[in-house]
Amino acid sequence: MANQHGDFIWYELLTRDADAAARFYGAVVGWQERPAEGSDRGYRVFGIRGVDVGGLMPFPAGAESAGMRPTWLGYVAVDDVDETASEIVRAGGTQHMPPTDIPGVGRFAMLADPQGVMLYVMRGAMDGTSTAFDQSRPGHCHWNELSTSDPAAALAFYTARFGWTKGGAMPMGEMGDYQFIDHGGRTIGAVMRRTPDGPPPAWTFYFGVEDIDGAAKAVSGNGGTIHYGPAEVPGGMFIVVATDPQGGLFGLVGPRRA
């Protein structure tokens, strides 16, 4: 079955050192990387067990001097890229890259929500199903977490654009609720208020691993920095929040084997 409007279908790392990033995530998550066919911008594809799950790309020229930091971005499937991009701008968002065709791949646009969080919207050229988000497979994304300056406004924005719905919530004291978001009959992530002294508003994507302690050791042993965890979360799983050696923020989720 093809992906629905509102599904996360791809994850992409923009970084200043693509070779070092490929080695790091290979050690931590177990991804293999290969050049993307036909790309003239150094784009690479991350895969695991023969399935493509994400991409890796060096900063475009001038991006770092303009203030871009290494970051993970998510792609959301939409029925009509041009219409969704226009809706996002009308709703207070920003267009960073206009709707553009990639021959044989699809049409996409880079935008930001009203709180400044960047994302892509995309309509694939074929009706295949992406499994980049698959909570049952290690190496795939298991959780999409938005940390933002205005959770209520962000929820209203995303539910209106992508058809997501509010699920349950966990109280977090002065931080407010950790609000789950549902789509297509499953919980795909959550929205929370960013900490005042934390990173700017952003999505954090949690990738599944088979052994959280082994993955945490691989983060530290390969030049990354752990900011939180391993910590238990509901369901008996454990999470880690970390940055890679270039400063890209990401999460890991998996069981504790020891």
Automatic annotation (TrEMBL):
Domain VOC: residue ranges: 7-124, 137-255
PROSITE patterns, sorted: VOC
InterPro entries: Anthracycline_SecMetBiosynth, Glyas_Bleomycin-R_OHBP_Dase, Glyas_Fos-R_dOase_dom, VOC_core
Superkingdom, natural source: Bacteria
UniProt name for this protein: VOC family protein
